[in-house]
Amino acid sequence: MSILWLTFPDLTNSAVWMSFLTLTFLEIVLGVDNIIFISLITTKIPRELQKKATNIGLFLAMLLRILLLFGITILIGMSQPWIVLETEYISAAFSGQRLILIAGGIFLLYKSVTEIHQKLEGDEHQIGSSNKGKLSLSSAIIQITLINIVFSFDSILTAVGMTNGLPGSFVIMIVAVILSVLIMMMFAVPVGRFVNDHPTIQILGLSFLILIGFMLILEGGHIAHLNFFGEEIGSVPKGYLYFAIAFSLLVEFLNMRLRKKTLSKIDVHSASHEAEQQGLI
Question: Most buried among 2, 168, 273, 281, by the most CB within 10 A?
Fold first, then answer.
């Protein structure tokens, strides 16, 4: 088994930089829900401790994700088949690497579709708003840690999906996770407000996860030489994924500018109409 984290990425490779920048963006988007949950919990502790609790919570999230990266990277390094299927219609050889990719892809699909459904049909992730009692700092940190465990899985599986097959992928994942958490520590409140004010960014990020989930499943099946009725599962070039993400982001930012411009015109028109009615102009 090769020690994947000792391989340093080739910084002259454009795919490495595209993967790193895209992964950092997705880690921030995925971390927004985490920030919102942390904010809800920290409102129950004294105001002077809220910033401290938020930073501790995000730091714990970073540590948990790095620990999970070590565990998942070791599993991915296991290339010897664990399960071998040989039937008339299906054949495959599943190792630890292939199973974690397929399971991770299924999890990301489930997580993304569930989150999109909840955002469209109504948010079910409410943390006891009726509970107005104050929490101690230690109680808040325990709750934040439990939430971080849940939110770390989709973050790590996204990292694996974005960097799988790239030399130095472990270093890329570690740096992206650390950078995204540091950015969230610095801009936790503005980032949370920006994404909350622009729900389409949340939906866009979750849609990216659906793409990554499908890619993980196909990649796992391809490496396992999965055959259905004599047809082997192929892999999806990551360039297609990068292009889809970059193009979608560009279109969304153009839409945001257009909406802002349209709203400004509506506000000006409404003000002018009101002034006319009052005989001011």
Answer: 168
The pLDDT tens digits for 190-229 are: 665 666 677 777 788 778 778 877 877 887 777 667 777 7
What is the model's pLDDT at position 3?
44
Q: What is the spatial distance between Cα 93 and Cα 85, in angstroms, rounded to a whole number?
A: 6
Q: What is the per-residue pLDDT for 130?
A: 41
Q: Output the six-digit token pair for 280.
A: 């001011």
Q: How many residues does the chain have?
A: 281
Please say whether the beta carbons of 94 and 224 come within 8 A: yes
With beta carbons less than 8 A apart as the criterion, state whether 23 and 158 touch.
yes
Residue 162 and residue 177 in contact, taking contact as beta carbons nearer than 8 Å: no
pTM, whole model, 2 decimals? 0.56
Q: What share of residues in the chain are helix, strand, coil (percent, to 5)?
A: 75, 5, 20
pLDDT(125) > 50: no
